[in-house]
């Protein structure tokens, strides 16, 4: 299975799970008088639309290079991640405003059965986080990483709701708003994770060269190619699930242009074979 198909299947897994959980949260929240659960449901609905955006972005970013996009379409992935962050911020603000309204308006305490619902949700969301995060690391996908953190955010907000409902249920009169304060805590956590998702995507768009381990690996491989005496500049930029590399290779200065050209192709082929996630590799020959 190709990387793009594996990524797409991972997102579909997330999308279906979020849709089911949104229905469960809304139902339990309405009948259980828990705004923290309803807030959780709102986030899950937003996550469904965010997952759809991620799916579209992954499909587009996996398109091969063409005349107008010689480096491929991978930059679409972090741009989609930015949209996902916007969705999360909007949902956080909505949840926060509604929680505030509930705090200043008297209401009933949540029903105890909502705790059972939340326990199941927390378990499922943590499992989903682990599955999607492993896939994001395997595929080097910032969009999938954002998708994974959606699951972790949902798990943490559910934990907050769980604690809030326990306080509201067992604290008695005057503690009804604990559920709503739990929703506010969820808002703070969502906004914090927005930054965690946004920062790597911004780094990718700005072509930050901060891939030390990959740079070291490339230099080590280069020294195994016959004719290569060393390396100088090594610039790396990420686009989608690929890394584009500009590498200066040192060769004996007396070599012919033809021989230098042959060595550069050997080096490029070796790098692409040893590191499959490399996309475009540009080798510049320097005299040693």
From TrEMBL:
Q: Where in the cell is it found?
A: Membrane
Alphabetical list of InterPro entries matching this protein: Cation_efflux (IPR002524), Cation_efflux_CTD (IPR027470), Cation_efflux_CTD_sf (IPR036837), Cation_efflux_TM (IPR058533), Cation_efflux_TMD_sf (IPR027469), CDF_Transporter (IPR050291)
> Domain named Cation efflux protein transmembrane: which ranges?
11-204
The record, for SUPFAM superfamilies, names: Cation efflux protein cytoplasmic domain-like (SSF160240), Cation efflux protein transmembrane domain-like (SSF161111)
Q: How does it sit in the membrane?
A: Multi-pass membrane protein
One Pfam family this chain carries? ZT_dimer
Please provide the record's keywords in A-Z order: Membrane, Transmembrane, Transmembrane helix, Transport
Task: Pinpoint the Cation efflux protein cytoplasmic domain residues.
Answer: 212-288
Can you tell me which family this protein belongs to?
A: Belongs to the cation diffusion facilitator (CDF) transporter (TC 2.A.4) family.
What is this protein's record name? Cation diffusion facilitator family transporter
Q: Which organism is it from?
A: Algoriphagus halophytocola
């Amino acid at each position: 299975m190709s990387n793009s198909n594996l990524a797409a299947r991972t997102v579909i897994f997330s999308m279906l799970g979020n849709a089911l959980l949104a229905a469960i949260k809304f139902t339990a929240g309405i009948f259980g008088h828990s705004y923290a659960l309803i807030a959780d449901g709102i986030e899950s609905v937003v996550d469904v639309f965010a997952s759809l955006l991620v799916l579209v972005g992954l499909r587009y970013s996996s398109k091969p290079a063409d005349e107008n996009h010689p480096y491929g379409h991978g930059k679409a992935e972090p741009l989609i991640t930015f949209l996902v962050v916007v969705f999360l911020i909007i949902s956080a603000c909505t949840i926060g405003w509604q929680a505030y309204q509930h705090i200043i308006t008297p209401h009933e305490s949540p029903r105890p059965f909502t705790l059972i619902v939340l326990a199941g949700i927390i378990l499922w969301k943590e499992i989903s986080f682990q599955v999607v995060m492993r896939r994001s690391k395997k595929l080097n996908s910032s969009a999938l990483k954002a998708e994974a953190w959606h699951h972790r955010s949902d798990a943490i907000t559910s934990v907050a709701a769980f604690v809030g409902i326990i306080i509201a249920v067992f604290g008695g009169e005057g503690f009804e708003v604990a559920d709503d304060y739990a929703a506010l805590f969820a808002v703070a956590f969502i906004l914090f994770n927005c930054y965690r998702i946004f920062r790597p995507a911004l780094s990718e768009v700005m072509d930050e060269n901060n891939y030390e381990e990959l740079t070291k690996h490339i230099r080590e491989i280069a020294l195994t190619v016959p004719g290569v005496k060393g390396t100088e500049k090594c610039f790396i930029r990420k686009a989608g699930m690929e890394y584009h590399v500009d590498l200066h290779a040192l060769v004996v200065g007396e070599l012919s242009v033809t021989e230098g050209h042959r060595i550069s192709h050997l080096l490029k082929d070796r790098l692409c074979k040893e590191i499959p996630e490399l996309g475009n590799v540009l080798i510049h020959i320097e005299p040693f």
